Amino acid sequence: MTEPLATLGVILAGGLARRMGGGDKTMRRIAGRPILDHVIERFEPQCAALILNANGDPARFTSYGLPVVADDVPDFAGPLAGVLAALDWCAAHHPGVEWVASVAADCPFLPRDLVARLQADRLAMQADLAVAASGGQSHPVIGLWKVSLRDELRHALVVEQCRKVGRWTARHRLATTQWPATPVDPFFNANTPDDLSDAEALAALAP
Fold first, then answer.
1. Domain-by-domain residue ranges, the chain?
2. Comparing C-alpha atoms, which of 96, 120, 98, 108 is closest to residue 43?
3. Does pLDDT of 56 surpass 70?
4. Cis link prior to 4 (omega < 30° from 0)?
5. Dihedrals φ, ψ of 33, to 5°?
6. What pLDDT is recorded for position 4?
7. Spatial contact of 46 and 9, defined as CB atoms under 8 Å apart
8. What would the CATH number be for the domain defined by 7-203?
9. pTM score, two decimals?
10. In percent, how much of the chain has pLDDT > 70?
């Protein structure tokens, strides 16, 4: 594994879950457990440390024992605000760590080699960022971010009002790591109640 202890992980759970009817969709259950449990089980062993990006009352996540870091850009500025919060937290609490890996909190089938492969492809390309893809589709919030870019990201968010992940990553050398989408897309995300039903069936197939 490339740089196994040099990556902080952040689970992005700062969204409004409108398509799920509001509330914390990470607490909806798949295979008898909250989605967040599945995400942590797969992601935490790949990271030197793990934090949760979430807004609102952090006490609802107390049982997980993870630092809960809220956005400091107001008005629910999207996943880039969560990434920025993680980069700032990493710089303050783990100054020797240069990379943050982010995943969406609604992806219960994450690959167990996610961080290693993103780091390997980032190194091979000498890239500033890396992003995951499957079935020919990019997943821009599942990626690898350079901590030293946090001031540039803050300027883009606050001054330029740049909210689209792809628009910001396009400014940098970007590595893209591909995964197969069968038998289960590792980046399947549960956005709607119907997705939860699909996830129950997929859970039996997930490696």
1. 7-203
2. 108
3. yes
4. no
5. -135, 155
6. 47
7. yes
8. 3.90.550.10
9. 0.89
10. 86
CA–CA distances in Å: residue 84 to residues 37, 79, 92, 178, 204: 24, 9, 12, 25, 35
Mean pLDDT for the stretch of residues 136-150: 96
CA 73, 79, 84, 89 torsion: positive or negative?
positive
Distance CA 52, CA 24 (A): 13
Is residue 43 over pLDDT 90?
yes
CA pair distance 151, 128, nearest whole angstrom: 14
What's the pLDDT score for residue 181? Answer: 93
The two structure tokens encoding residue 43? 């992601």
Beta strands 99-104 and 129-134: pairing type?
unpaired
- Scored b (16 or more CB within 10 A) or e, 181-193 reads eeebbbbbbbbee
